[in-house]
Amino acid sequence: MSIYHDVIKHEVFPALGCTEPIAVAYAASLAAELFGGEIDSVTVTVDPGVFKNGFAVTVPETGGLKGNIIAAALGSLVARPELKMEILSGTTEELLVKAKLMVSSGRATVALAMGQTDLFIDAIVSGGGRSARAILRGGHTNVVHLECDGEILLDDDKSVAANDSHAYRAILREMTFPEIILLLDGLEPGDLAYLKRGVEMNLRIAEVGKGLTKVGYYVEELVRKGFLLSDVVSSSKILTASASDARMAGLSYPAMSSGGSGNQGIVATLVPYNVGLFFNIPEETILRSIALSHLVNAYIKCHTGDLAPICGCAIAAGVGAAVAIVYQQSGADIHKINLAVNTIISDIGGMLCDGAKGGCALKVVSSTDAAIRAAYMALNGHGITEEEGFIGNSAEETIHNLSRITDIGMPLADETMLTIMLEKRSITESRSRSEEG
Length: 437
Known about the structure:
The strands form two sheets. A six-stranded mixed sheet has the order 3-2-4-5-6-7. Strands 1-8 form a two-stranded antiparallel sheet. The longest helix is centred in the last third of the chain and has 26 residues, at 411-436. The protein contains 17 helices and eight strands. 57% of the residues lie in helices and 10% in strands. Helix 6 crosses helix 12. By secondary structure, the protein is an alpha+beta fold.
């Protein structure tokens, strides 16, 4: 299998809801399927990134409930891991009632493993003196450990290293942008059809999101009132924001993800798609540019990690979208691609990730705007160069520098954000107990 197909298989797939709580539900369902009996409790331990992204986001099929805990409870009751990242499509009203009871009675818990540096979800279900366990590491569907009643059924955990949990990532990490672009030569009609399916899926959720009075609605209102121009930039921002609005609101429509993230999939696909349509770019070229967008997104995340302290929509999907737009109009012009990458990373590379929630649509808007601006500066021979800040002499060097900042400079910022979020939860729970008393 080629590197391109490995990326698509592991990182570009339909996801119903924010991918972190859905991955929690998936892990719980894996353990529950092994267990095969009446579940009394589910205990999940997650890394800081999963904890953060599942802290305040609405979970689909729950009637508006938020957080990893309801996802864990419901996933353990659905117990259909073959659904993977669409696991909660198996929800019924009866199961939801049981899940709510499990949460309210304290029989579903989610703990934070602060020391985990890559994606990590450890789910244990138990009842009647029996238990089963499933561990995901390094990817939303990457199962590394399965255990039931003390019998180990799968144990690949020790061989999994951070950032290289799939073999293709180690190879992709060392590739150059010219080499990544050459991967597009191997695309076949079936690949293009899958990419088109992703576009259609994300357009559908964007259309649903336009019915919400959220970020996409307000950007559109700014256009109607004349504060923003009615142009391809504004229409792209409305499109991506509306899709993100729908996802973060927990509406039951899947999005095609990129890098294992639905919001990143929205930016990576819909920005080059909408810009390509506006400039009458042939459909096949648009689809190839979207393939490149996915590859660049995956490449950056090989360097920064799956769940970095900085926003993936900005530093991964936004960069992918900018490169895709340049590719549509200038092909494999590495000078212009370097300019686009350096410009957008210089612009929004420091955007913090404080977890998945409704406000992510604002970051999607900023990413969309920055991607288009960086691409068209580059297409006209302009952009940020190595003379400025942490920007390198090439796209690869800039991404490497960004990785150093993320790995060395940002962990304390991430820890501080998590501390603030935990303090907020503690205050909310105290107020709730006081009101009940």
